[in-house]
Design brief:
Blueprint lengths: L1 H9 L5 H28 L4 H8 L3 H8 L3
């Protein structure tokens, strides 16, 4: 988890260039983590509705984003 910790620390840097790059990298990391967890939930038999509820989005949104993967 050191990569995420390092990125989170850099996101608070006083230099906007460093902070914005870190925010962008954190966004990519979060997207990857979400995809892994959605796949895991589906493999364990979770419905799109259950996943959506945990992510705080609609069933349609999560299915649209991950349904074809």
């Amino acid at each position: 988890m050191t990569e995420a910790t390092d990125l989170a620390e850099r996101a608070g840097d006083r230099d906007p260039r460093i902070a914005l790059r870190a925010v962008s990298a954190l966004r990519r990391l979060l997207e990857q983590l979400e995809a892994v967890q959605v796949r895991s939930a589906r493999n364990q038999g979770w419905s799109w509705q259950e996943i959506a509820a945990e992510l705080g989005v609609s069933r349609q949104a999560v299915h649209k984003k991950y349904g074809r993967q």
